[in-house]
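#structure-requests
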Amino acid sequence: MTGAASVSDDERLRLFLALRLPERVLDVVESWQHDHLRDVRVVPREHLHVTVAFLGHRPASELGGVLRELRAAAADAPADLRLAAARYRETGSVAMLVLDDLDGGAGAFAADLQARLERLGSYRREGRRWLPHVTVARFRSRPGLRLEPPAMGTFVPSDAAAYLSRLRPGGAQYEVLESVVLT
């Protein structure tokens, strides 16, 4: 477990929880971005992740409970948490790599963590099913690219983390508040 940032109790924090990518996967995605994504705002390497739960603005007083639930879910994480790139997809403002949840472990981890956060009162699930993906670029108008995803092979997330997101004119800046090993 690591803690990389600190906050005061009276702040409102824009939080999300995510699975982090191993270095070899980050290398592949970063190279693929450089080769294929032009005229868009590429998501920097240090911001690449698989969002499990976006909490939005929460009182800093909730952070301790959120981190406790992240640790508990990581300790109970399934052993079969394996992902692989399935396809490239664009929405109105982002490009993403949609991932296959090969054994259902990532989905089980996400469901467990989301349920824990709901019981805590810090999160409400979206109406749609969780889609494991990595946002790789942002744009104002959809470029309409038809790309093959990078050949990153099967991988296991390196860990799970709680992120603080600060909105800036050049885009959101993410800080890892705490990361935990998936057991």
